[in-house]
Amino acid sequence: MTHIAELNRGIEQLGIDLTGGQTALLGGYLSLLAKWNQTYNLTAVREEARMVSYHLLDSLTLVPHLDGGTRLLDVGSGGGMPGIPAAIARPDLSVVVLDANHKKTTFLRQAVIELKLVNVEVITSRVELYRPDTPFDRITSRAFAELGEFVSLTRHLLAPGGQWLAMKGVYPYEEIASLPEDTRASEVLGVGVPGLDAERHLVRVVPR
User: Fold this and answer.
1) Is 161 annotated as a binding residue?
2) CATH of the domain at 27
3) How many CB atoms within 10 Å of residue 150?
């Protein structure tokens, strides 16, 4: 099975409605990620075939939970997950991908240019130093920090009525218990990633 065929099958299993053009963009992003990864060490997953489930489909599990917002921040984006796939799937969203690593944001800028992602902005900064003009309705991260630290470091970036959407592996009991007292986990969803035999959870955190 080709990478695109595997991607299409996974998208169908996730129940996400994407056009052929969006799928082609995801394939282009995958190719860029695999190519740059040889030099820039963007991800520990080296095989392009494994990147389909580990990175693209895993990132796309966020998409059904992005309703109600217009601005998304992906903190510690690394090679662009989940921000780039989310931006491709939801071109109506304004997405900022943020990372402190200059090599990684160099790749992200090149990907945005080559894929013509007009709804994506790349920021090189430590998150606690980032001061945008407009806050974010949704803030996500895939492998940035434990929940408590993630929330504390990004609190100044959340818009009134906004939410944090943290992508985790196994059910993060201890991390949820250590959330700041003025926040709470309003929802913890078990997430199935097509082609990936591993636990995944999405934790929705809101201010009290």
Assistant:
1) no
2) 3.40.50.150
3) 23
Mean pLDDT value of segment 161-167: 97
Report whether 127 belongs to an annotated binding site: yes
**pLDDT tens-digit map of 113-156:** 999 999 999 999 999 999 999 999 999 999 889 999 999 999 99
Q: Write the CA distances from 116 to 16, 97, 152, integer angstroms.
A: 22, 15, 33
User: Is there a binding annotation on residue 175?
Assistant: no
Total domains present in the chain: 1
Q: What pLDDT, on a 0 to 100 scale, did the predictor assign at position 49?
A: 62
Domain that holds residue 24: 3-207
pLDDT tops 60 at residue 52: yes
User: 142: annotated binding-site residue?
Assistant: yes
27 is in an annotated binding site: no
Q: What per-residue confidence (pLDDT) applies to 18?
A: 96
The residues, any chain, with a CB within 8 Å of residue 74's CB and separated by 6 or more, are 80, 81, 82, 83, 86, 95, 96, 97, 98, 140, 141, 142
**H/E run at residue 207:** strand 201-207
